[in-house]
Design goal:
Length: 86
């Protein structure tokens, strides 16, 4: 269905280009387009508007884990790393 939830995440800058990240989404929750706190889901992700890097957080075992216990993975898409002219 392509449904997801919007995830509320503290301000994080892109590890690749330093731009603030936004539009976090998750398919771990009820997927009814709700705004949910990141602690409610096991996995959330976004892509950087600037460099199109894929940033994904996956929860480790502690159910009350803070954000620092999420593991961030970044998968940059090489072909779109060139910045577009404004
Ligand atoms: Zn970026």
């Amino acid at each position: 269905m392509g449904m997801y939830d919007c995830v509320s995440v503290p301000d994080i800058d892109c590890p690749k280009c330093g731009k603030p990240l936004s539009d976090w989404q998750s398919k771990s929750g009820d997927c009814v387009l709700d705004e949910i706190h990141y602690s409610a889901v096991d996995n959330f992700y976004t892509s950087c508007d600037e460099c199109h890097a894929w940033i994904e957080f996956t929860k480790r075992v502690d159910p009350d884990a803070p954000l620092s216990s999420y593991e961030m993975t970044v998968d940059a898409v090489d072909s779109v790393l060139e910045r577009q002219e404004p």
